[in-house]
Amino acid sequence: MKTLIVYAHPEPKSLNGSLKDLAVSTLTKAGHEVRVSDLYAMRWKATVDAADYGPSASSPLRVPKDSGRAFETGTLTPDVRAEQEKLLWADTIIFQFPLWWYTMPAILKGWVDRVFTYRFAYGVGEHSAVKYGERFGEGTLAGRRALLSVTVGGPESHYAERGINGPIDDLLFPIQHGILYYPGIEVLPPFVLYGTDRTTGDDWPDIAKAWEQRLLTLETTEPIPFRRQNFGDYEIPSLNLKEGLEPAGRSGFRLHVRA
């Protein structure tokens, strides 16, 4: 595999840092190529602005159109182009981050905002009476697989079906389905560590063993079976799931996962 690790934590000695380092060593030892985007070490700029698009920026700024024009003309700022090239190089992407305020750290969201430009990650393909662009199972990044490796401070029960924070699958759905699956990336079930506010050094051997096992089975792990947009499950152009396709009693985000 050619694996890109996008890592977002400010402390190299953190649990997230240790998980990132173990991923690099485990995959490299297994013969895979690994690249790392350490966003804090890179001092990644998290905010989109006109400087991202160079001479392709308009006034007033129109982020989708300007980012697409900059992508197509090769005038995106070099740091953004470099990350897009890493994504095109990789066949597997690991996102390593802590769950902060129910989502990814701002620096990682800023990486998405700037790197997933129009014409690169969205706004591609045919729009017609039978197809609504290449997305949700198709797109520029189709053929790649991604895994979220997430540390969560609270106990697992807080993130269960009846837990006060809501199911972890629901919290991660906007990332897994809305960001990654949208441009065609297949998403593997996440690796989630709970109760990490109370993790000690004594817990590390078991954590490391579980993480190594996930890493060494990435190629054979089945992705989350999200429904593909243009393959008969949705009405076009409303993009509503067709009646009768959902299992009895299923609702919400789970409608968009095949049984």
From TrEMBL:
Q: Which GO terms describe its molecular function?
A: NAD(P)H dehydrogenase (quinone) activity
- Residues crossing the lipid bilayer are none
Ranges of residues in domain Flavodoxin-like fold: 1-213
Task: Supply the alphabetized keyword list.
Answer: Oxidoreductase
State whether keyword Oxidoreductase applies. yes
What the entry lists under SUPFAM superfamilies is as follows:
Flavoproteins
- List the GO cellular component terms: cytosol
Give yes or no: UniProt keyword Heme.
Answer: no
Q: What family is reported?
A: Belongs to the NAD(P)H dehydrogenase (quinone) family.
Q: Kindly give the PANTHER family that the UniProt entry links to this protein.
A: NAD P H OXIDOREDUCTASE-RELATED, NAD(P)H DEHYDROGENASE [QUINONE] 1 ISOFORM 1
Q: What is this protein called?
A: NAD(P)H dehydrogenase
Record the organism: [Actinomadura] parvosata subsp. kistnae
- Organism lineage: Bacteria, Bacillati, Actinomycetota, Actinomycetes, Streptosporangiales
